Amino acid sequence: MTKKALIVYGGWDGHQPDLVAELFRTILTEEGFSVEMSQSLDSFSDEEALKTLNLIIPIWTMGEITNEQCKSVLNAVASGVGIAGNHGGMCDAFRSNVDWQFMTGGNWVAHPGNDGVEYTVNIKKGSSPIVEGIEDFIVKSEHYYLHVDPAVEVLATTRFPVVDGPHAANGVVDMPVIWTKRWGKGKVFYCSLGHHADILEAPHCREIMRRGFLWAAKEEE
User: Is residue 203 classed exposed, middle or buried when 0-12, 13-18 and 19+ CB atoms within 10 A define those classes?
Assistant: First the structure.
């Protein structure tokens, strides 16, 4: 049976949602998915339709979701539909909706130094097949500081501070970059990389996203 995915993209244009959506569509199509693309949050309104999917991918930074739309997604994921995403498209999507943040496992709060910060992503060896065989790598992009659910399974971290600021007074902290978690019967995958699409096009990032999509869609354990 053909696997089905829904990509809902839009919101703030600065995160290039159209380019990211096309990259993710290509990855999923190569893996045999039937992919529906939508530029409307109304696609989240039909709970029964969502429950027929294998995977939901939100790419929608700084938007407003209705309680009904959010509830439909939460219920679909709890029933076993996977959800996966990256950067602000999933964990800076709906700042005023704490239920969304509860499901996804975290929310963006800062990126000291803005774009162009060079930092290392440290893979947590043995944490998951999603990162197996991938070595630590350097990224030059936004350095995402998030408030993170302690229930997540951390697959990669990055060390703060790189850029000085008031946060540096707290000393060194290792911030999750990639994680998984469960929401009812559903799987949640998140990667904070991808301020622009070119970051995700790098082979290691593309492979991590591919594996994360398959894991969330119950194609891999």
Answer: exposed
Domain holding 114: CATH number?
3.40.50.880
When the pLDDT of each residue in the chain is averaged and rounded to a whole number, the result is: 97
What is the total count of domains within the chain? 1
In a domain, 53, yes or no: yes
Q: Once rounded to an integer, what is the mean pLDDT over residues 133-146?
A: 98
Q: How far apart are CA 111 and CA 194, in angstroms?
A: 13
0.85 exceeded by the pTM? Answer: yes
Q: Which two tokens stand for residue 70?
A: 């959010």
CA distance 8 to 112: 28
68-88: pLDDT as tens digits: 999 999 999 999 999 999 999
Residue 12 has what pLDDT?
Answer: 97
The token pair that represents 6 in the structure block:
């829904």
Report if residue 221 sits inside a domain: no
Mean pLDDT of 27-49: 98
- Please say whether the beta carbons of 21 and 54 come within 8 A: no
Domain that holds residue 7: 3-216
Nearest CA to 56 among 66, 38, 148, 67? Answer: 38
